[in-house]
Amino acid sequence: MTETPKPTVRTTRYEVSCLPPDNIDAFHFTITVEWRGGDLWAVLRYGECLGTDGKWDYEPRPSNREDDWLDAHRFDLDTALKLAQEEAPKITVNGQTVADVLRRAAS
Length: 107
Known about the structure:
Radius of gyration: 17 Å
Structural class: alpha+beta
Low-confidence stretches: none
Strand content: 15-25%
Number of domains: 1
Helix content: 25-40%
Number of strands: 7
Strand order of the largest sheet: 1-2-3-4-5
């Protein structure tokens, strides 16, 4: 009888936000850092991917991602988390900033 191997656990996604997770608007003000294979990670928000130039671009389907696009939109984990932390305070949704949402929650 073959023994069933133990399951492995791995982290493939981080959420970065300036809002507490229980805030009703947290989803809209959250950036994710997601594993994309090997040691490469993407910084994402609403289907857009942060590039090395600091601009957000729509992430093409895997079959349409060319090497130059991948090189400009993939990071090691430490860099991806740092970039996500730098971008999180800058998020604005429908004219509302992170500070606006936090101020509203405090009142």
